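Chapter summary example.
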Amino acid sequence: MLAKLSMKGVFIAWRRLSKRTEDLSRELGLETVFIPDKPPYIRAALKTASILRRVKPRIVFVQLPQGPLLGEAVTLSKFLGFRVVADVHTGFIHTTTFKERVLNNPFHRYLRLTHLILAHNTLEQELIVKKAGVSRDKIIVVYDPVPAPPQRLEEPKLGIELDKAIVLPASWSPDEPIDRVVEEFLRSRASKEFTLIVTGNWRRNEDMYSRVIEIIRRYNAKDRVMATGFVSDEEYWYILKSCRAVIALTSREYTLPHVLWEAVAVRKLFLVSRTKALEAEIGNEYPCFFSQDIKDFGETLDRCLLDKGQAYAEKVAEMLEARSRQGIENLRRAIQTLL
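The structure predicted for these 339 residues follows.
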């Protein structure tokens, strides 16, 4: 991979490579450098420096929240002469745990030394201005590119009618109250007709998985809730394209879940957590928001499975897709001015 790196630009990610980074790299023609390291990121820092010195790119995108990556890129740019673009993921600027604050807050000041900053939505843009003290003129809002499903899909062997399925694409991260969604689904009228499919590798959060299994047992609902575990991209997109609705679940502010963009790509009805950022982007009149405490999830699901919910979802999908395209075009123009 390293021998093929573009002389124009690279997109560097440490520890975890996000779908957004992959999609933006594809849209912009950048080569992706992914280094799966852990704090204190010594190996990642040494490898990054070696690559940048050898390749001498004209522009370097960095995927945050890894603050040390931002610090290293800004420092090396002074010697190697490349431009730095920081893609600010929520965990970098909206620190909610002690660990996040320790790892990221000291590096906020480096945003002022970058050449361009990418915010994921309008509320995050305002937060970056406030917390990092950067000029709003340096920040542009770039929504996630609408992902492209694989050309060839593969039907998974799940043994259910997928057009009667509600899908919860889960990362099994701490900000996803999957157990609460499962329980409220089983209390809904929709559970008499539909099956809830929870995708993703549940081994990442075995405590949560155990709670989900206990709820399924208590409601005697093995035929109404299914945790698939890991599925291939071809199977995952088959499920999304075939299902009745998609759940975009998050308790984090200042973020738009990638699942939302996947629902846009397949034009599916989506139910989404009510956060300030999502309300600002979608509009608070959207009828398929559910509250952070999940108490109204079943009611929301029952209401949104009606045709009204689908019609709203299609309008919102068209709006979000247009914003995504415009944001990427704005980014292309901004890059040209940097180069």
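To summarize the output: Confidence is low (pLDDT under 50) at residues 1-5.
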